[in-house]
Structure formats: C-alpha cells, structure tokens
Write a sequence for this structure.
C-alpha cells in the first residue's frame, strides 16, 4: 500500500526474458516514462502498468521483479492477449490516438459491432487498473492515472474509493467537439464521464484543456470557465489544468555523457557526417504518422529544388525509432518514409553527397547528440500533445540551431518566441522556411536559441510533477463547491443531439 | 444593369449543343439553383454564372441565350479550361468542399507549390466574377455572391463598388478553427478577408454561422457575439446570419405531377417494386462521399444480419445521381457504392427478393415519387450544409415514413423533433435504428411525420430569399457602428500563430 500510486499502460522498465531464463530490463520507451522517472525521485510510490512483453509477463508472474525508479514498487497487470490487443490497438491507438491527432480517416472509419466489442475490452482493462489502484492505495492516498489509455479508470476508482485523490493526465492533444463527436455517442459520453471521475484533469497545454472543456459543454455538462471546472452528473467537480512539461538541462547533459561513454560513431562530432562547411538539418521522431515525416521529406525535396545553391551543402539526418509495428498503419508509414527518403536521394544525391540519411535507431543519448550537432531542427507534427524533442533540442544544441516547429505542437506555446512556426500541412511553406532558417544571421540565431532554451526549461519534470501533486492537494482541501445559480451549459453541439 | 445581381458558379440552365448546331437547355443541377429558381419570381435580376459545358460556352459566345428564370437576364463567363479546372476541382471541390465536410485527408493532403498555382486560379475566377458583378449592378444595387466558390469575390467587389450591398451565402457546413487552420495561413486569411467584404454572410444553420465566427476570432478579428458581427481589418462590419432553407409543398407537388405526366415506371405506386406487405427503405443522394452511402449500405447489411425476421420483407431503394465524375475521388466512390450494394445482394438476396436496388438516375420528380412511397428514409451524411432531401421527403411522403437523419446535417436543427437522429460514423447505431424505425407504432409515426412536415416547411425558398434581402437592406441602413470600447478577440488559436 502506498500514499502515491502511478498507473500507466507502459511501465518504467521493459523486461526481456533471456535464453537462460533470467530477466533483463531497460527503461521503457515514451515521453511520459522519460519525464516521470527522474521526477519521481523522493516520492515513494507504487507504479502499476500492463505487462506487455513476454519478459513483462514473466516478471509479473514471478517474484523476480526489481524495484521501479527511485525505489518505487512495481506492479504489472496481465491481460488475455485479445483483450489487450483490442484495448491497446483498436481503441487506444487506432481510434483515440488518431482522433485526438485529427488523423482518423473520416472517409472510411466506421463504428460497427466489432468496435463495440473492442470498447468492452477497453472498459475491462480500465476496470482492472482501477481495481489494482484501489488495492495499492493507502486510505486518503493519491492516484495518478496517466493518459488516454486509462480514461475510464478515474470514475471507476472514485466509485470504489471516494477517499482517494485522483489525477488524470492526458498527454496527447485534445480535439474539439466536432471531431470528438465522431465517436459513437455512448462511447463519447462514457469517456467524458470516466475522466470526470478525477479531481484534477491535466493536459499539456492550455489549448488542449480548452478543447476538452468545449467537449464537456457540447455534451451538456456544466462548465465553469472562470475556474476551469466541470461538474459531473453526480455533482462531483473536476478541475482542468495545463501542465506544460519542460526538460531538465542537467539530466539531458548527463544522458549525453553516459551515452557517449558507451557508444560513439560517425554521427558524432567533430565531422557530424557532413562535408566540410556543410550544414546539418536534423529531425528525431518516432516512426509515427502524426510526426509528419513524409511531408517533411517532401518539403526538403522542394527546398533543394528551389534553392540549388544548397545542393551538396545541406544534409538532412532523419533519426527515427520504431513504433507500434504491430499495427499495419505504422508498417505502411515506415515503408512510405523509406521510399520518400530514397526518392530524394535518387533525385539529388551525388557521389560525394547523400542528401537524406535515414537512420532507424532507438538510442536517446545518440539522438541528443544529433540534436546538439544540428544547424537546423525540423519538428513538424500534424498535431502533438507537447513534443519533447523540440525542447530537448533547444536545450542541448551547441550551434545556435534554428528550430522549425509546427504550430500544432503543444511545445509551440512555450517556444513561440524563438522558433520559426509552420503549418504542418503546408509543404511549400516548410520548403521556404528551410531556406530562411539556413540564411539567418548569427546574432539572430543566438538570440532565438537563448529564447528557446528559456522556454524549454520553464517547467522541468520534477517541478511538473510537484505542480500536479500540489494542485491536487489544494483542490481537495478547497472542496468542490459550485458557484450558486450557475446555469447549465447554454448551446449544445451535435454530440448532445441524442443525450 | 440590374438592381439585383445573383452570381453563382453554376447557372440556372445547363445548355447542350445539338448536332444541328442549335442550343437546348434544361434546369441546372444542385440545391441552390432549385431553391433560387422559384424564389426569384417577381425579382427582376441578372444572373451571372460560369460557362461549364460546351453548350454553355456556345451560349455565352453567341446571342442565342434565353432568359433566365422569372425573366432574369443571364450572363455566362468563360474561362481558360486549366484555370477553371484548378479553381473548380483543385480548390473549390477537392480542398474547400472536403475541408468543410471534415473529409480532407489529413494523413495525406499537402499544400505544395502546385496548390499555390491552383489558388491563383481561384483568385482569378473570383476576380472575373467581381468584375462582371460590377458591370451588371445599378448604383446602390444589391449583389448575392453564392457559395464557397466565390469566397474572395465579396471583398473584390466592395473595393470596386462601395455603393453596392453585398450578400455572401455559404451553402456548405463550416468547420471549426482546428480544421479550417489546416489551410495554408495566407490562404485561410485571404478567404476570411474575402468573405468579410460582404455586408451580410449567410449560412444554412446557426451551427455553421457559429463555427465561422469562431474561425474569425481565431484569426484575430474582432467579433461581436451579441450582434453576430465581425469587423474587417479596414473597419467594415460584416453581419453573420443563418437562413435555414426549407421547402415549398405546392412546388414539390407540382413537380411530381409534371414528372408523372412524362415518365412512369416500376418504382411508381401502387406496387412500389416491393413484395406484397413488404416495406421500402429509401435514400436519394448525389453520388458524393459526404452523403455517406457506403456506410449506409454497411449498416443495412448489419441490420439484415441481426434482424432475420426482415429478410425478404424490407427492400432498400438507393437512388443516386452522378456528381463530379471529372474527379477520380468521385469515380472511385461510385465504384465503391456499386460494390457494396452488390455485396449485400449476393449475401442476402433470394430468387424473389433483391435487398438493395441501386438506381443511378438524375430525375427529380421520380426521386420525389420514391420519397413519397417510402416507409423509412435514410439521410445520413457525414456532414451536410442543409440536406434538402430530408425536407422534401418529410413534405411529400404519403406513408408516415420514419426519417433517420444524421445529426451532422443542417436539416437536423429543423427536423430534430420528428426524426430519429444518428451519428453518421456509427454503423452499428444505424443498423439498430433501422430496426427501431420499422417497429414504430402507427400513431407514433403519424405524430413524427406531422412534426417533420412542420419543420420542413418553416422557411420555403421565397421566404428564404426575402429574409436575406430584407436583412441586407436593414443592415445597410443601420450602418456599421461598432460597440465602443469593444476589445479585440482575446485568446487566439493556432491559425494566428504567424499573423
């Protein structure tokens, strides 16, 4: 039993079963784990997650499970594979993730009886998490239910444990009522009701928090825009707040040093793998449609075509890590990225110059070193909850690199002052912006780099977690009084037509 | 020169060049033309449109052009084919239409240099319309610039003719700032600025008008939500109003009678082409992705599967008219609809019963007769500015048919009381709703049919046009005073990040 319980689909360690039957482990992937791991130092807690790999399941079954980060206790939940697949791929990734990133194929998607079955699995996994949190939490304790995988768990947990303070943190963007309303009505309503079981619902920016409040209004909830609070059907009040996660420069520098001691190679300084006097454009992404890698490569090709003076001089390093390869959509996207990179190279490459170097690699320290060596960084997601690469790059870069950043990334709110913002769908604009970025004067670049560092370090992980815990405690003591005479939401959107 | 000028991409007549060199003509397609043609009776006007067919171009060149409806003068503008193609297909249909219906493929669409060229053509065609309106309009006259094809023309005309009252009427839905912001910034801003050149901007429902105001706010315009007005950069004030177009029962009955005198066939009463005691589910649509025909057929298949008692009893008549066959997207959609219909028939059909009868036909009177004979009507567009089929069916049906209606159709606002509303993406829900519709009691159906007729007839075309003209006149006399001390829009969305 712990006073603080963290629950997330993916846990802090990923276990691998060795041929000799022993378990090895390394840090799990994803921005949330990266942020929480250092932030949890000094917070005794239990961390509950799903057993994903065979190694995870072995660790969950046996007693050989190690401690979590900073001495936290680990608990892994095992699920029947079909149930997990439906919960994780069909609902969380294929539906909610794409929906919130505006990538749901509205021409083709259909919510049929198969989806209803998948939704039942999503509910089942959420219930298991809620039950595990119930068991693991001290009376009056605090539970953090992380991200869109666990949107139903807050209300389920509240029902069992009204004594517990509940945070639900959403790490993806949040779409407005029109897009959210594409979901079946019953599903949309169950999702909102599930989330509103929390005392505090956190988002990564003001923008996503506002979109969420708009969805609650469209669904007929009473929303207090002054206090950014929503009253659930049972009278419970959920508060909605942005927690714009930043980076910690010391942590990143330590990671780079540790990495350099282990690896090394052609991407490292001093040559950076580019010809003498050459310049390096870098992007670092998961292989993920929302990261917008294909349009980025198309724009790079257009840039070369329109700016022949840069031929042979500018090299584009595209560092990608594999992601969700269990889904056909992601495998197709991987192929498309490879084909686009190859097309650019065939069209523009010479004996001495490869315009695009596509490197598939899951190595955070090496990615940070590539960011450090860049002259230009391209971060152009179609939509993104935050995008920590933009902030990491701002922090570790050593050449006053110019950051080209999608205005639809949450990070744009913090880095607006120093970055060159772009519309991620506009490849012509990105091509022009690459030319601009490579032409900025040194003092302009230095000033922008300074502003970027400042924006990136604004709320580093430790402070970010403390802010959430502090608000959660305060909200509970302040109680859930609702302004007297506050009328229900006025105009209702499409979502409520049948509610 | 006229006191009233109507400008629309498509004119009231479609001309055909006969083998002997003479011109024949019939009424142009589309809801706007259908509504305006009767409404214009008694309003002397000039109607300006684009010459689209070879016959149109011959009519535009020669002097053999007949009068327009109700004695209006016709003027057709000819364009270089590539220019027209870019304006009409690349910008208006492929981009603006799909965008406003949430059907833009956000995973694949890219605004590259080719799109910039298409946009220049859109601008050129709009300028030609503005110039033609300038020439055709009396001093102090009134110009109606119809629909999303002519979004830039209002500001262009205002610049030339500040003496003229300008209406811009949008007949498609309007997407919120997130979706609208997918457009390149310069394009989005030019569109809004173009529209805001009008004195009055009309939409088909409150919902689209509100979305438009939200886009204006996101783009940094001053919006007065009390008066639903927007102040353009030059201080000019544009008013925004909904005009929910309804139908005129007398007109529809006359059309049916005229049609019956000419045609006739197996779809007519008394047998309605269904087995004795059988029931008829009807849909009537343009072959258009936003009409959501494929999901409708999938839902019909799921309905038959889950309700075997209806096998052999319920027949689905799918009456479609060809649309935009010049675009590959529409030809593909046509194939998909045919395949889906065939799949249902192969799976469920018997010697004596064909579950789906797909009829491709452009015959308004016959479509009205099919609506009259229906037991259930399915109108499930993913999004739709209004959808007049729903209202026509409500008006002419003779069997107290149940209307299943997408909540994303503008018509849902007027027909909410009598219809069964559905989420158009939810095929499981539509399958269940078909079963519900076929099980409603006679008195429930009669009461719903009464409410539907009432909602459908609320603002018939003549009244609709008069309301627009009345408001336009009133807004000009009331002037464009802006509330003192009104502050600019507060929070800005993604769209303005670079403005």
């Amino acid at each position: 039993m712990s006073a603080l319980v963290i629950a997330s689909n993916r846990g802090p360690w990923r276990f691998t079963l060795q041929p000799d039957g022993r378990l090895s482990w390394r840090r799990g992937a994803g921005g949330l784990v990266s942020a929480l791991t250092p932030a949890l130092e000094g917070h005794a807690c239990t961390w509950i997650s799903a057993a994903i790999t065979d190694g995870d399941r072995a660790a969950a079954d046996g007693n050989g499970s190690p401690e979590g980060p900073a001495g936290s206790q680990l608990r892994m939940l095992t699920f029947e594979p079909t149930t997990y697949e439906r919960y994780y791929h069909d609902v969380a990734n294929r539906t909610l993730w794409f929906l919130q990133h505006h990538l749901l194929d509205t021409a083709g998607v259909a919510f049929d009886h198969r989806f209803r079955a998948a939704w039942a699995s999503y509910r089942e996994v959420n219930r298991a998490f809620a039950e595990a949190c119930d068991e693991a939490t001290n009376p009056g304790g605090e539970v953090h239910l992380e991200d869109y995988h666990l949107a139903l768990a807050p209300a389920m947990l509240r029902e069992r444990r009204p004594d517990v303070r509940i945070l639900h943190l959403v790490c993806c963007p949040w779409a407005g009522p029109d897009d959210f309303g594409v979901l079946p009505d019953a599903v949309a309503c169950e999702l909102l009701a599930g989330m509103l079981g929390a005392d505090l619902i956190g988002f990564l920016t003001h923008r996503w928090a506002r979109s969420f409040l708009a969805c609650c209004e469209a669904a007929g909830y009473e929303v207090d825009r002054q206090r950014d609070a929503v009253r659930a059907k049972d009278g419970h009040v959920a508060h909605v707040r942005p927690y714009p996660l930043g980076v910690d420069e010391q942590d990143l520098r330590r990671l780079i040093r540790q990495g350099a001691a282990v690896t090394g190679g052609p991407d490292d300084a001093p040559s950076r793998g580019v010809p003498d006097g050459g310049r390096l454009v870098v992007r670092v992404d998961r292989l993920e449609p929302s990261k917008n890698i294909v349009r980025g490569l198309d724009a790079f090709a257009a840039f070369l075509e329109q700016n022949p003076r840069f031929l042979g001089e500018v090299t584009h390093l595209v560092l990608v890590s594999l992601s969700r390869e269990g889904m056909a959509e992601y495998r197709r996207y991987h192929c498309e990225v490879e084909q686009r990179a190859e097309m650019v190279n065939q069209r523009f490459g010479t004996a001495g110059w490869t315009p695009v170097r596509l490197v598939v690699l899951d190595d955070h320290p090496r990615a940070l070193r590539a960011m450090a060596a860049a002259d230009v960084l391209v971060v152009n997601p179609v939509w993104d909850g935050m995008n920590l690469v933009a902030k990491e790059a701002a922090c570790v870069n050593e050449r006053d690199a110019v950051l080209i950043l999608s205005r639809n990334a949450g990070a744009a709110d913090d880095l607006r002052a120093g970055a060159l913002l772009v519309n991620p769908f506009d490849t012509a604009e990105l091509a022009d912006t690459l030319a601009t970025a490579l032409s900025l004067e040194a003092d302009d670049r230095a000033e922008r780099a300074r502003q970027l560092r400042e924006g990136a370090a604004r709320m580093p992980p430790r402070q970010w977690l403390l802010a959430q815990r502090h608000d959660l405690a305060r909200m509970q003591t302040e109680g859930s009084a609702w302004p007297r005479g506050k009328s229900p939401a006025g105009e209702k959107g499409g979502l409520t037509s049948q509610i």
Q: What stands out?
A: Chain A touches chain B through 48 residues (CB under 8 Å).
